[in-house]
């Protein structure tokens, strides 16, 4: 994977080609495992038909790499509006005259062939879009992000399992429940990560008071205590909006959970199974995460608290790319890349822990933070305002750290995701925090 020292264009070209191939391999796995009727069907009004994602991936790649970088003419200008995410909301997409599966695959394949020719001839420097292969990196991350979106569609899909994967390794340790992060400044965001997206920039100093942070994400077992204690029925734990939503949506447990006798069950990619007590809780909304934290006498961490715990190295005062250091993720560090279709038990991944001893910040489950999605001080749109800026504001909450569904190339200590506080079809969990106050 790319880092700031990768400057040799031949090395960079090979790396980009590898990342493009890896993304397409994943896209293939997600779309070759079901019949055409399932590719064109809408499995949930929250999601596009899989065949839309497929052609949209090709269309964005054509737009940014062939047209903007390569200066080529549009291949099929008439289809552009169909695949513009801002022209048609997801709920409308099944009624559009979309490319059928064979044509969608063919289009993405044609684009890719031309992109590989372009890459072979590109100096990968000389303009902001080309420097360090940024536009290629952005497109690789875009495809991988849609691969996560498509995995969410698979989770929402009814019917028997289409995807399988081995369980993650179970190396969970018994650890202290929380760690203390002492007061002090740290560097949030980045100026040096070559493929960082606009909302991760610029690097800036943030001063934080001391706080305690959960060593690992909140487990299903812990969450079940909240349920059993009547947490869903007690408005004291919920914000006003959260309570209104809980009432109106009839929330009583995480999405995909059901009670069978006294046993909580969950549906996971087409299989009904007992809820595993030691796994991080998954498929909860921000409102549920926030209510749990309040019930536990705690709160969600701010985005800055999450990032300091994940990146700050107290020995050097520097912020690093990942909790374990600057090296790219390996399977020993984190549960990423859809290698396993579920999170690992809480307390896993000793090699991935941060200097403060915090585990599973990267991978496993996206973690809700208390923060609204805003640009950092000095934010500049790059290269288009529809990636981040149009979403800035109080309606969206920030999630950090990536899930088992996120590719390493689209995951780092600075990466920011966002969604509405009601959403829970995403691979979302959380951990809690509290002020350290006088004791620190
Ligand atoms: C960053 C995950 C919120 O899926 O809406 C994909 C990523 N942007 N295509 C999304 C994205 C354009 C985005 N998230
Ligand atoms: Fe997209």
UniProtKB/TrEMBL annotation:
Pathway: Amino-acid biosynthesis; ergothioneine biosynthesis. Residues 306-315 have a biased composition (Basic and acidic residues). InterPro entries: CTDL_fold, DinB-like, DinB/YfiT-like, EgtB, EgtB_Actinobacteria, Sulfatase_Mod_Factor_Kinase, SUMF_dom, SUMF_sf. Gene3D superfamilies: dinb family like domain (1.20.120.450), paralog of FGE (formylglycine-generating enzyme) (3.90.1580.10). It catalyses: gamma-L-glutamyl-L-cysteine + hercynine + O2 = gamma-L-glutamyl-hercynylcysteine S-oxide + H2O. The keyword Oxidoreductase applies. Residues 306-349 are annotated as: Disordered. Gamma-L-glutamyl-L-cysteine binds at residues 90-93, 419, 423. Catalyzes the oxidative sulfurization of hercynine (N-alpha,N-alpha,N-alpha-trimethyl-L-histidine) into hercynyl-gamma-L-glutamyl-L-cysteine sulfoxide, a step in the biosynthesis pathway of ergothioneine. PANTHER family: HERCYNINE OXYGENASE, SULFATASE MODIFYING FACTOR 1, 2. This is Hercynine oxygenase. It comes from Kitasatospora paracochleata. The gene is egtB.
